Amino acid sequence: METTALFSYSYSKPPLTQTLTFPHYRPANPSTISLSRTKLHSRTRPLTIQCTLTRDQKEEIVGKVKTLLEGCCFMAVIDYTGFTVKNFQDLRKSLPEKSKLFVAKNRLVYKAIEPTSFAPLRPCMKGMNAYLFVYSEEIPEAIKPYRKFQEESKVENDFLGAVFEGKFYAPEDFKQLETMPTREELYAKVLGALQSPAIGLVTTLQAPARDVLMVLKAYVKKLEDESGGGGQ
Fold first, then answer.
1. What is the pLDDT of residue 41?
2. CB 3.0–4.6 Å: which of 2, 124, 189, 228 could bond 160 by disulfide?
3. pLDDT per residue over 55-95, tens digit each?
4. Is 45 exposed, middle or buried (0-12, 13-18, 19+ CB in 10 A)?
5. Distance (Å, rounded) from C-alpha 120 to C-alpha 129?
6. Distance between CA atoms of 10 and 16, rounded to whole angstroms?
7. DSSP H helical ranges for 70-120
8. C-beta separation of 99 from 134 below 8 A
9. Across 112-120, average pLDDT
10. Order of strands, edge to edge, in the sheet holding 99-103?
11. Three-state SS at 110
12. Residue predicted with more confidence, 185 or 213
């Protein structure tokens, strides 16, 4: 009889799956078997050893995703099929401080995001995916590093989808995300409208909710700064 065992190492590393078969061997508990990682590690060849997770390990991963969701403004799914270890290393190095890349089983990630505004990602949570968590509203700046990585590494893997402010963006909608005005541009637009005739304010209030909110935040900050400066 043949027994198939699956092994694993750090879940923050790319889970490049490989099945190992041992003839005439039946372990009492496959999840306790360990295997030297150094002999299997490769910078150029996709490779991951993955084991059947225990309940505690699954709960730990779900908890980790929930932690990553705290303060998250933007979450995207990236297809990493064919990525090498070096690809992941290069991608992680390219990300700004307010972005984090995480790899885990799709169903465990969904279990964590199901009760949140990021649940609309479910349709694209199939296959081999990496998850990008962004803790800034500067979405264009958060996407740029991956675009640069695609160009330099010559990989065609693209975003499968993203959620921002509860709205799902399919791959063909990313142009909207990548051309969003920066915080400074929104501040200038709002403050300019507030100081202009009424028609300018009406035009601003007819803008998307995000733009209006950013404008109001900018105006409140301006008043706070002026108030603080006057008290010195």
1. 46
2. 124
3. 999 999 999 999 999 999 999 999 999 999 999 999 999 99
4. exposed
5. 16
6. 12
7. 85-94, 106-113
8. yes
9. 97
10. 99-103, 129-134, 74-79, 159-164, 167-169
11. helix
12. 185
Give the start-to-end residue ranges of the domains of the chain: 55-178, 183-219
Q: Which of 165, 182, 180 is nearest to 218 (CA)?
A: 182
- Angle at the Cα of 87 (from 84 to 89), degrees rounded to 5? 115
Cβ 12 vs Cβ 65: under 8 Å: no
Alpha carbons 103 and 64: distance in angstroms, whole number: 11
- CATH 3.30.70.1730 assigned to domain 55-178? The reply is yes
Average pLDDT of the chain to the nearest whole number: 76
Structure tokens given for 10: 């750090």
Nearest residue to 164 via CA among 143, 184, 148 = 143
Q: Cα dist. 91→80, 86, 116, 171 in Å?
A: 11, 8, 27, 19
What type of residue is 154? K
